[in-house]
Write a structure and sequence with these properties.
Strand content: 5-15%
Shape: elongated
Keywords: Membrane, Transmembrane, Transmembrane helix
Strand order of the largest sheet: 1-2
Oligomer: single chain
Number of domains: 2
Length: 79
């Protein structure tokens, strides 16, 4: 255990990186929930008055509805 402590103390940037990756792998909702909330998605879907609907509208206007159909198919997971 003493070797591990010395290794962690002598490499603080690597220790921070490994700890950050471990948090993202073990508890991704810590990052995902605030990030999705910041762009307009809530627990019940797209939040009214957020930037999500306007971004979706602009993307659909640029590439057409076909992209939305393909994204819907990619996110569909049969049970």
């Amino acid at each position: 255990m003493d070797k591990v402590t010395k290794l962690l103390a002598s490499n603080p940037s690597t220790t921070a990186y490994v700890a950050g990756v471990a948090v993202l792998v073990l508890a991704p909702q810590i990052v995902a929930v605030p990030a999705l909330g910041a762009i307009g998605f809530g627990a019940k879907g797209v939040a009214a008055g957020s930037c999500s609907p306007s971004v979706d509208f602009r993307v659909s206007a640029l590439v057409g509805n076909r992209l939305g159909d393909e994204l819907a198919l990619l996110t569909y997971v049969p049970l």
